[in-house]
Amino acid sequence: MARAVGIDFGTKRVGVAVSDPLMMFSQPVGTFNQDGAVDAVQRLQDEHGVDTIVIGWPVSEEGAASKGTARVQEYVNRLKRRFPEATIVHWDERFSTQRAKELLKQGTRPSLRKTGRERIDTAVAGLLLQEFLDEKAGSDVF
User: Fold this and answer.
1) What's the gap between Cα 102 and its chain centre?
2) CB count, 10 Å around CB of 65?
3) Measured CA angle at 122 (ends 118, 127), to 5 deg
């Protein structure tokens, strides 16, 4: 069964998460540089198949395009060239970093409460993917 991948794009770091085979749960993969993230998605494609890539779409609080939208679109174009069969979904990432930080702070073990940038980027990718999976679970898309 093909899986979905979540991506939190950043100019320095890219967080990556993957769904389980039933597309119910998001699992962290890691944080990479831009090339490393594409390679990580390729490994997931080779191992499991990837049919959907959910990428955080940076919009303003009002929902309009932001400064980062063009940079993310360039990365989306790169992903489209590398994974032409995958559906790429732009997912509203407003306030996702704050939500991910809060989730990390709620961890019961001290090691889970650490909020380093790499950990946050991976958590955001997982959060975006989980939101997508939750929304699709209530529809007839899958």
Assistant:
1) 17
2) 13
3) 140
CA distance 75 to 25: 25
Residue 112's pLDDT is what? 43
The domain that contains 15 carries what CATH number? Answer: 3.30.420.140
Q: What is the mean pLDDT of residues 29-50?
A: 96
Q: Could you give phi then psi for residue 115, rounded to 5 degrees? A: -125, 50
> To the nearest whole percent, how much of the chain has pLDDT over 70?
77
CA distances to 90, 107, 138 from 29, rounded to whole Å, are 19, 18, 25
Q: Which structure tokens are listed for 134? A: 């939750």
Strand order in the sheet with 26-32: 26-32, 14-19, 3-8, 50-57, 87-92
Angle between helices 96-105 and 117-137 (to 10 degrees): 100
Q: Is residue 141 part of a domain?
A: no
Range of the domain at 78: 3-136
Work out the percent of the chain whose per-residue pLDDT is above 90.
56
